[in-house]
Amino acid sequence: MTDESSTSGDHSAHPELSVIVPAHNEEPGIAAALLAINNALQSCSGSNEIIVVDDGSTDETYRVLQKLCQEQDNLRAIKLSRNFGKESAMLAGLRVAAGEAVITLDADLQHPPALIPEMVEKWKAGAMVVHAVKRQRESNTFLERFRAKFYNNLLKLLGGIDLRNSSDYKLLDRVIVDALVNELHEYQRFYRGLVTWLGFKQEKLYFDVASRQAGDSKWSTGSLIGLAITGIVSFTSMPLRIVTIFGILTLLLAFGVAVEALWSWFQGTAVSGFMTIVFVILLLGSFIMISLGIMGEYIAKIYEEVKNRPDYLVDRTSGFDEHR
After folding, report:
1. Distance from C-alpha of 7 to C-alpha of 28, rounded to nearest angstrom
2. Which end of the chain is more exposed for a tag (fewer CB within 10 A), N or C?
């Protein structure tokens, strides 16, 4: 097994542009994706490299990459020991990228590589971050569009970070890359949010989301919910304040019920109040369980952070020793 140290921090060669492509079970379409990326890079002056991070694929993705590395001088490949998730795969790529600017994009061609030259132009004009923002989501189902809109609006409301129609398709200046890799040490990362949080001069480019060229989406509902929770917990403590609000509402409810009970008693119309008691018990129980759940998410994040495990483990690499 090749450990992480053998492929991190080696910036002996300094291409102008690095392109990072996380991939998981992309065997059917990875060659076509790399061809499209290379065609786009031909319109950019200066040297470049493409780093594909195989995030523990169970198909022949890495075997295809090994073959392509022998044919393309600018291609490097990293295979992680298992599926650590897209956030970890992108971090693995960022740690070895040597370019003065780094672009991250998906392997399914839903992020159009043809946008790369325009992103580079904005970078050369002074932008430190160039966000590729989705203009429309017609290729997504109604449920997917609703889910994305709900989550992004919730994150903006609670955390003050506007990620509406954002994507992982971004260009980062070397200053931004170094800050992400060296200054931010959290284990559970939310790439889109962290890049926005860093600040500096940021600009946007708009694109239309294309259909996948091959294979199926690797994002399940459960993984998307997990990413959403990570984003919210990482960038705001507002949900914890909601627990306090629940407590205040419960106090007001209890006061109201007490006033109603005393009024009925003075009027001589007091009844058993069975339904009132049932309602109050159910409401209090709901508030308590929701509050415990919110606090549990923050405690779980603290637990993951203090374990201090590595973000990923590298199994093997291709294209690095040959070209650096």
Report:
1. 27
2. N
Inter-residue contact 79 to 320 (CB < 8 Å)? no
| Domain at 4-220+312-323, CATH class | alpha beta
**Residue with tokens 């690797």, as numbered in its chain:** 218
Cβ–Cβ < 8 Å for 132, 168: no
For each of the chain's 324 residues, which pLDDT tens digit applies? 344 433 444 444 588 899 999 998 888 888 888 999 998 988 888 889 999 999 888 888 899 998 998 888 889 999 998 888 888 898 989 999 988 999 999 888 888 898 899 999 999 998 999 988 877 655 556 666 666 666 666 666 665 566 666 788 899 999 999 998 888 877 777 777 788 878 888 888 888 776 655 545 555 555 556 666 666 666 666 677 777 777 777 777 777 766 776 776 676 665 556 566 766 777 777 777 777 877 777 787 777 767 777 888 888 888 776 544
**Rounded alpha-carbon distances, angstroms, from residue 94 to 101, 185, 238, 269:** 11, 14, 31, 72
- 30, 57, 146, 132: CA torsion to nearest 10: -40
pTM above 0.85, yes or no: no
Tokens of 63: 């075997």
What are the residue boundaries of the structural domains of the chain, listed by start? 4-220+312-323, 238-307
State the Cα–Cα distance between residues 305 and 40, nearest whole angstrom.
39
